[in-house]
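If you are new to this repository, start here. Below is one unmodified record pulled from the training split, so you can see the exact layout before writing a loader.
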Amino acid sequence: DETWSNLVMLLLRNANNEGILEVYRLVSEVGGMRRGEDYIELAQLATDKGLPGEAQAALEAAIAKKNFTDPKSMETANRMLATAKTQVAGDKAGLSQAVKSAAAGKN
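And here is the target side for that same chain:
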């Protein structure tokens, strides 16, 4: 576990913003996320890249795992989650309209 943490820290120190998101994705995928703040960072990076669904999934996972020990972080996560859900709903509505337009031949 310590080796993993050291590797993650090394990767994060040497990564650009795109790389940081990839590191957090990797850590999340292998079950290495431990701190709520890491999920917040992942969610923020995903939001910045226009990926609200990924942000929503990360925050919901952190909340389900009870990774937030600080009330302020929990408040931040809940606020970010509400925003992500709103953005996802907007994306779904836009996709629905795009599908209808494409089906009607209006590219």
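Two things worth knowing about this chain: The first helix runs from residue 2 to 13. The two ends are 51 Å apart (CA to CA).
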